[in-house]
Design a protein that fits this description.
Structural class: alpha+beta
Radius of gyration: 22 Å
Oligomer: single chain
Strand content: 15-25%
Helix content: 25-40%
Largest sheet: 5 strands, antiparallel
């Protein structure tokens, strides 16, 4: 009850820091204005965050980052994570091992945890985004219970998954084709053939402190990230061997409700089999505009080889992940996105002249 009251209070005061689209209204408005200008289209501001885009006799409307792609049923399907896991698995696509349970069925979750070491993820089963209610790197029964209580604030259907090794990639699928990919790139270090991983982290932290930057913490994410690269803190990486230190940006060290922030274009790294799985996921969902989240230690090989999986299928994916707003007027795939959207829009019929 206390956690529920804290959440209500936090949301009422708008201090949860989970709302991150509203401050981008001007960015998206100018982005689409620039697209229209370069494409010879008409751009009309209907209100501060609602705009109309008209080109070649077709018209569509945009509300901040949301566009007129999916119907309500498709949106609901995408938000039901257990259902999407089942549909994707039935379609032959790798998804995390998982179990659906309720807060009154914690023994089921405990048994799943015991069968899937070292870590699991607990999250709401339906209708959340931006890391709401999600706890990663769950290791003990007490942590399962605590994570389940948090997730239950958002949904009564709870989901526990095995923690999949790797970094998080988002493949943007437009009109059935994988068009762009970004990654939440973790910090990397390079071996010198003499120093242990522990010493390399300490040396890097000294450099980060000198620059006034946040240091690398040795936490569960760090240890897990090292482990799937067959490293420990006492390993001595070979000369010039580059390894990943962490995959989760979690300055508070809680590993709960962490929003994924993509920071690198990796379109050219995604191999053909992974691209095909992303396209298949979009087809199974029935969406022409979807962000497919994939966790894998190596995007250059198939998910079967890497041990990766498709984690989520996101409707209304945000285009601000796919370009550098400081140096570009809009992402290159914005034109492709609009072309796909307008191809499905009705042709505008002009009223006949009065007789």
């Amino acid at each position: 009850m206390m956690k529920r009251l804290q959440k209500i209070w936090r949301d009422w005061r708008n201090t949860s820091k989970k709302i991150y689209f509203f401050h981008r209204v001007s960015e998206y408005r100018e982005m689409w204005r620039n697209v229209a200008m370069d494409n010879g289209a008409r751009f009309t501001v209907l209100s501060d965050d609602v705009w109309e885009y008209e080109y070649n006799g077709r018209k569509t409307r945009i509300v901040n980052h949301e566009m007129e792609f999916d119907n309500p049923v498709t949106l609901i399907l995408a938000g039901r994570k257990p259902l999407m896991h089942r549909m994707l698995r039935e379609g032959g696509i790798p998804v995390p091992d998982h179990l659906v349970f309720h807060l009154t069925e914690l023994e089921k979750a405990y048994a799943f945890l015991d069968a899937h070491p070292p870590y699991c993820v607990v999250k709401p089963g339906n209708g959340t985004h931006a890391g709401d209610g999600v706890t990663t790197h769950v290791m003990t029964r007490r942590e399962v219970r605590k994570a389940a209580i948090l997730a239950s604030l958002y949904c009564q259907d709870l989901l526990i998954e095995s923690q999949v090794p790797g970094e998080c990639y988002r493949v943007l699928v437009i009109g059935g084709k994988a068009a762009h990919a970004v990654c939440r790139r973790g910090p990397r270090l390079k071996g010198d053939g003499r120093s242990t991983v522990r010493q390399l982290i300490l040396d890097e932290n000294e450099r980060l402190k000198h620059r006034g930057m946040r240091i690398l913490t040795v936490d569960r994410d760090c240890l897990f990230t090292l482990s799937w690269q067959k490293l420990t803190l006492d390993s001595i990486p070979p000369m010039d061997h580059v390894f990943i230190v962490k995959t989760v940006d979690d300055p508070q060290g809680k590993l709960t409700e962490i929003r994924t922030v993509y920071n690198e274009n990796v379109t050219d790294l995604i191999c053909a089999p992974v691209r095909r799985y992303a396209e298949m996921a979009a087809k199974i969902l029935g969406s022409d505009f979807v962000g497919v989240d994939i966790i894998t230690p190596d995007p250059t090989v198939s998910l079967e080889v890497s041990g990766g999986s498709i984690n989520e299928v996101n409707t209304t994916p945000a285009l601000h992940h796919h370009y550098d707003a400081k140096n570009e007027k809009y992402p290159k795939i914005a034109l492709q996105t609009m072309d796909c959207l307008l191809s499905k829009a009705k042709v505008i019929k002009t009223d006949p002249s009065p007789r």
